[in-house]
Design brief:
CATH class of the largest domain: Mainly Beta
Order of helices and strands: HEEEEEEEEEEEEEEEEHH
Number of domains: 3
Number of helices: 3
Mean pLDDT: 80
Structural class: alpha+beta
Shape: elongated
CATH topology of the largest domain: Immunoglobulin-like
Strand order of the largest sheet: 1-9-8-3-4-5
Radius of gyration: 36 Å
Helix content: 10-25%
Strand content: 35-45%
């Protein structure tokens, strides 16, 4: 009975293994930010290697297998549909795998196996994709201030300066990202400004917001009242002046009616004689 050469047997076994799920006993973990490029080396690169095989098992997806047979420079793949995952260069020179660009869906196990004349070698990576959150700070209702770290992976941590009466909630978004929202108020404190600090593995960020204290709010209301009173006095004085110089009385009344209507008061002009 004719038997296949050892290299053919190893190559066939590499593709049969593509149907097995990756248990992922990771030799190393690799954290990569989304939308960047990741390169996964395949150690060891031995000159006696016959076949190099990558088994790619992203989270919640069927495994894909890429293999290269060095003696005849043959490259094959099985069940691989993601064009962002490929050999970094020529696999006969460098068997490293690249992901460009990295997406959230690339979380998972990546195992490289080298079948050589002196044995079978392998290395498994557990790839974790990081997503920086979008941080915002704004005024909420009832005097609260809201700090939001949206769609981060993993979830962010929020800290306030000064500390207040705060309520923090997390909302998983279903794709592995999490939105964290913290609401605070400082009812019994004279706080003029606050800062929200967001801590995340991709980097930290702080935002600041200026608040109005009770005294400042009273001062602003007083200024607004005085300004409104002066405006009313000027409008009345201008109307009387127009009346006295013989302008159209009907036009003046229309002007006054429009002004008071805007301020919530309506005065009728029935019986006004048109004198121009």
């Amino acid at each position: 009975e004719r038997t296949q050469p050892a290299s053919h047997h190893v190559f066939n076994q590499a593709f049969l293994s593509s149907f097995s799920l990756c248990v992922c006993p990771a030799n190393s973990s690799l954290s990569v930010s989304v939308d960047t490029k990741a390169v996964l080396p395949c150690p060891p690169d031995t000159p006696t290697a016959l076949v190099v095989t990558w088994t790619i098992s992203p989270r919640d997806q069927p495994p894909c297998t890429r293999a290269h047979r060095r003696d005849n420079n043959e490259t094959s793949e099985r069940n691989c549909t993601d064009a962002r995952i490929s050999w970094e260069s020529r696999p006969d020179q460098n068997p490293a795998l690249q992901i460009d660009p990295v997406a959230i869906t690339h979380d998972g196990c990546y195992r490289c196996e080298v079948a050589a004349a002196d044995g079978l070698f392998g290395h498994t990576y557990y790839l974790r994709v990081l997503v920086p959150p979008k941080v915002t700070l704004f005024r909420g209702i009832n005097g609260t201030v809201v700090c939001r770290a949206a769609a981060g992976k993993p979830s962010a941590q929020i800290f306030w300066t000064p500390e207040g009466d705060c309520d923090t909630e997390e909302e998983p978004l279903g794709n592995g990202t999490v939105t964290v929202e913290s609401k605070c108020h400082w009812e019994d404190l004279q706080v003029s400004n606050v800062s929200c600090s967001v801590s995340h593995v991709t980097g930290n960020k702080s935002l600041f917001l200026e608040l109005e204290t009770g005294d400042q709010l009273s001062l602003n209301l007083t200024i607004l009242y005085i300004t409104s009173s002066i405006s009313v006095a000027l409008v009345i004085a201008g109307s009387i002046w127009l009346w006295r110089i013989g302008c159209c009385r009907y036009s003046v009344m229309l002007f006054l009616q429009f002004y008071w209507a805007r301020r919530g008061k309506v005065y009728g002009i029935d019986g006004v004689e048109l004198i121009c």
